[in-house]
Every structure is written in structure tokens, then in C-alpha cells.
């Protein structure tokens, strides 16, 4: 049976970790965080799972690796990284979004996706859940996974105001999962703007090509989290009744622990967490940068602003 996967796509610092943390509170859901990080820092540096243990010591991830591959040592990481370079990069998006389902790219994307399919299936077996959540964000990875016959994929596409993303991407934020003091990457606002457009357009095209997609904005979601989340849960094919979403109100959420990797510092928060709109860019993003980002992203920015949460 193919694993049912909810893939959270969206440009960096757009609210993907928030959606992932909310979904993992639901019964029948196992959230893995950003699985794309597994092949690099998570295994290379033995980074931390949200349970507090390193990946190599986490019982959950150890069981997943054993069922999927026969253990972490059985994975050829060099081969996974080689396949990723040939498929999971923005420069491959035009070909990945094409209609061809044959040839070298299809074979490579299928081989690359097979590692994810095995992780997803093993996670469902270990957890006893019905649905896997992967918040890897990347449009190129979503394209690869959408080409796999071994995965039942649904896409949640979250969009944040490009100016908010641009401002956030100028800030250095420590990664709470890193054991060697790594930070989340930073970028100039103009560079962020161009990447924001490419990434969101690619995810939008995937939906138009037939991949089941639920699109929402970060701003709209935070404005009406309960209503927005219930719509998202229904899209995922899960129960959205009052009891199963009781951990969420319109101003806060109560978070438990899980076994996810990657993501921003919110991934490690537990207990009562306030929900509020992060719009610091309005006061802190320099005017010149704000105008440049607005101009470069204007057509999409205007259209996405009309989307509900």
C-alpha cells in the first residue's frame, strides 16, 4: 500500500514549520519534519531530533532506518546525494515540470524518490499512523515525489508576503537541531524575491498539472487559525471535529513532542505557544528593499493576497 503523504511546500520562512507542528498534534499523523535534511546535516553531523536525542540515538528514527534500509549504515549517502544533484535543484524545475514521464530524468527522479518512499512507509509502520507529513518545502523535491508511483502525495502550498520573507531571510537564526552551531541561511532581499517567485510558481504549476493541492497564505492562516486548520485537515482526509482540534484556538496552540528534523526554532517548542502575525518587516525592512521586493514580486504578490488562510 502506498504511503499517504502530506507535503508542505513553500519558500523558506513562510510558515511551513507552523503547519507541520499543528498537523503532528492530530491522531493518525506522524510528522517527520524536513526529510530533505536527513541526507546531509542530520546524518553527517548526527543532529538532534525534536525528542532531544541525536538521530543515531533516537529510537523512533532507528526503527525507521532499520525497516526502510536495514539501518543507517546500509544507506549509500553518496548515491542519494548524487541523485539529488541530478534532480532536486531549482535549475531542474523546467524539465521536472514538463510533461515527459520517460527518459533519464524520470528514471533518476524515481530512484531519488524511492529513498523517501521507504522512509515514509517505515514511519507509518513504526508509528501506526495513517498519514506522513514532510515539510521539506522544496518545489524541486515536490516535483520528484509527484512523479513517483510509490507515493500517494498531496501538496499543501503555503505562501507568505514576499516582503515578510525577504526581511526574515536577512536575519541570522540559529538552528536548534544543530550540534555544531549552524544557522539558517540568509540572503539579500533581491535574491530572495527572485527565488520566492520561482519557487511559488513551480508549486502552483504542480497543482495545475493535477497534483491534489491546498493553497493558503501565512497571513490568512494566522488571522483565522481554527477555520483555516480545519479546512487543511479536511483536505488531508482526516477528522476535523472539535475534539481532534481542541489543542488549537484563535490565539494559541498547545504543542506536544514529536520526532521531526530540520525547521526553524519553533520545531522544538512545546506547551502553550501564542499565535501572532509576524509582520516586523513593515517597520524594519528598509524602504529601498521594500520597494524592490514589491516591484519584483508584484504580480504574484497581488494575486496571492486575495487567497484565504
From TrEMBL:
Name used for this protein in its record: Sulfotransferase
SUPFAM superfamilies xref list: P-loop containing nucleoside triphosphate hydrolases
Organism: Actinoallomurus spadix
Domain of life (superkingdom): Bacteria
